[in-house]
Amino acid sequence: MQGKPIQIISIGNEDDTSGSRCILELNEAELIPMLIDEKVKDRDVCVISVAGAFRKGKSFLLDFFLRYMYARYVDGNVSDNDWLGGDEEPLKGFSWRGGSKRDTTGILLWSDIFLYDYPTGEKVAIILMDTQGTFDCESTMKDCANVFALSTMISSVQIFNIQSNIQKDDLQHLQLFTEYARIAMEDTGKKPFQKLQFLIRDWPNEFETPYGAIGGKLLLETILNSKEKRHEENEQLCENLKTSFDEINCYLMPHPGLTVQKPDFQGCLKDLQDDFKKHLLDLIPLILAPENLIIKEINGEKLKVAHLLEYIQLYFESFNSKDFPEPTTIFKATAEANNQIHATNAEELYNIKMKQLTAPDQPYIDEAELKKKHEEYMSQSISDFENKPIMGRAKFIQKYYNKIKNYASSHFTQFAKINEAKLALAELNYLNDKNSCIRSFEKAMDDFFIGEAYTPLDEFKKIMENVKSKILQKFDSKRTNSTEKIHTRIRKELVEDLDKLYTKYNHQNEMKLASIKSYINMECAEAKKLYDKLMNNSEQSIEALTKAHAGAKKQALEMFRKVPHVGAEDFFKDCENQLIEKTDKKFNSIKECIVNKQQYLQLQFSQLKMNYENLMKEVCKKVLTNDNLLSKHEEFKGKVLEEFDDLTNNGKSVNYMVERRQKLDEDIEEIFDYYKSKNDKSLNEFVQKCISTKRQAKNVLMEPLENLSMFDSVDDVNSTYNRAFNEALDLYMELQDLISFNQETFDEYLSELREEFEAELQRITRRAEVGERVKNAAKTVLLTVVIVGFVAIFKVPPPI
Q: Rounded to 5 degrees, what are φ and ψ at 46?
């Protein structure tokens, strides 16, 4: 047995002065947690009370009730009737003792509430109640009447424990309830009490009327339906009693045996008479078996455990007045509790419907529509209240209508805030979706443009539009009608961002084309250089020179035609024609030199070209921008032409020297084209490396940022960004270690990278700021709900 008796109502003095009046004290500290426990609060309640004169074995009987309750409703085994316990087992539970002094004061409940689930699905909680014995030497008549009346009003089954027989005084204790019942029936038309069980202890007349329920029925009929002439007051009391309770029964119990009067008696079965034990086995299931349980009802409505608390509190206030309460006062308290419960249920109906309407998984609702739903649900709640068995006159009931309306109006403000917060949440979700779409677009385009192949512009536009269309479809799939304006605004931002990315990827694609052209240019120069190498021996006959030219030209063209040129076919064809033109021109020049026997001048001519080439070779060890390379070319060419001008003409005409100078100029330009193409190739390769590394650095930055939740703070965003920024920047800075390094290009793409990083920071910070607004709105709503809930339960403001 795990439970214990809890005194919920005790009797004390108003103050410490002598002669101060007695007052009732309610132990809410233990009562409230007991009745609002989640396991029991929503179950129908059955309250079984034992009341009657002091020292007549009420607590003693209740402890046998407890043995049955634990066996039947906890252990689930009463089939073999051994629930009475062992012969040597002392009786425990509610405190009791033999003798003439009272042991129980006030009203006690057993702390364990017993549970039973009917096959029909009905769930019941069973509470046992013990009461102070009436009419002892230590209590006033008012105290005794208060306790008896309170236990009767609270219980669904009142067991009236009476010694030997039912007397007139016993019936007069019920006078208050018959008056109350008359008032209640005038208002509701229903009997206010469920069951009154007379329990006659130590029945002395077994020879006339047998023990048990049958004998009790005979005795009750004799008393309530007697044909003998009785005083009019007694006659009316009996009639009123029959109309006050749904069921009135009586049970005659034998004496337990003289051993119970001994001081050392502990309630062991071995000390009780067999007849008494036999009738315990009969009586207790008649009251406590599942099929015999009586649910507490008020005005025909079954009462829940949590609602019982409200009745106890209101009855306590009524009975704790200076004077004994009038039946009308008790009826008012009952009506107050009854109507309050139905009003609270109506309020909860409104609350449930509005919660469903504004639940997190539901979309934002237009303000006008929300107001319309509020009025509709408030009207339904009032109708629900009207359809319940409410008590009292119209003026008394009006305050509950007002209470429901005030509740709905005050809570509507909170639901409106919750609904409004969904706009901020929707914006946050759309921003998150937008950022996700941008990353998906970048990933799709990065995957497509892996490698060095150029994509023709028309095909490139088609691919970009296809990816963009899918991304926008993905974004639009999250759209809701209630947040159309926010969706449209952020979608416009997304389209603008995608258009910027279009420009970026188009530039990268064009850079690939430039790289291909640079490679073609370089290979064209290499082919020309091969031709020059093969044609280097100028000491040949014209016939030999012509043959050598044909072979060298063929090898040069074969070498050049192996160059990949997909996407740059027209440019490749132009370079091929230029190569043919230059080889033929070179051949004619050599042939002319041989014819004119200008070997010495040609040697000097070749030395000057070599001087220029050596200077260009040295400067091109580094990757230069086109402007820098052109500047060096102009400088070196000027120097070589000055050296040419200083040569002696050896009797040659001015025109001849002018022609040779022009030829030197053309050859230098040709050499420059070679080194320019080579530098362009290196520069483009470095550009591609910068683009690739910049993409990797951005991925390093984005990975931790994408792992942030929508509700991470701005500080969390900045902290994560700073760590990722440094790591990404370190990765990009590794480009400085490359041999083919160009500072201007490096700085250009570093600047772009910083701009993109800043844009990502602004995007994710904006999302975090919206998230914080959502969290703050949610906190405001939650705090208000908590405060309202606290006040609803404890009837006082929450501690601040």
A: -120, 120
User: Do 339 and 384 meet the contact criterion of CB atoms below 8 Å apart?
Assistant: no
The CATH homologous superfamily to which domain 5-325 belongs is: P-loop containing nucleotide triphosphate hydrolases (3.40.50.300)
Whole-number Å distance between alpha carbons of 46 and 113 = 10
Q: Average pLDDT of 762-772? A: 87
Q: What is the reported pTM?
A: 0.56
Lowest average pLDDT, out of 21-35, 124-138, 216-230, 394-408, goes to 124-138
Cα-to-chain-centroid distance, residue 637: 75
Query: The tokens of 133 are what?
Result: 């014995």
C-alpha distances (whole Å) from 696 to each of 703, 732, 796 are 11, 8, 61
> Using CA atoms, how far apart are residues 330 and 322, in angstroms rounded to an integer?
14
HSE-CB of 572 using CA atoms within 13 angstroms:
16
* pLDDT digits 0-9 by tens, 21-57: 667 889 999 999 999 999 999 999 999 999 887 666 7
CA 364 to chain centre: 17
In the chain, what is the straight-line distance between the N-terminal and C-terminal CA atoms, in Å?
Answer: 41
Given a cut of 80, whether residue 251 has pLDDT beyond it is yes
Where exactly are the structural domains of the chain?
Answer: 5-325, 514-685
Nearest CA-CA partner of 302 in 123, 453, 117: 123
**Helix, strand, coil % over all residues of the chain, rounded to 5:** 65, 10, 25
Is the Cβ–Cβ distance between 585 and 662 less than 8 Å?
no
In the Cβ-directed half-sphere of 485, how many Cα atoms lie within 13 Å?
4
How far is Cα 563 from Cα 522, in angstroms, rounded to an integer? Answer: 10
Closest CA to 347 of 791, 797, 800, 796: 791
Cross-strand partners of 125: 45, 115
Q: In sequence order, what DSSP letters do the residues of 700-755 get, joined into one string?
A: HHHHHHHTS-TT--HHHHHHHHHHHHHHHHHHHHGGGG-SS--HHHHHHHHHHHHH
CA distance 226 to 365: 71
Give the C-alpha separation, 387 to 374, whole Å. 20
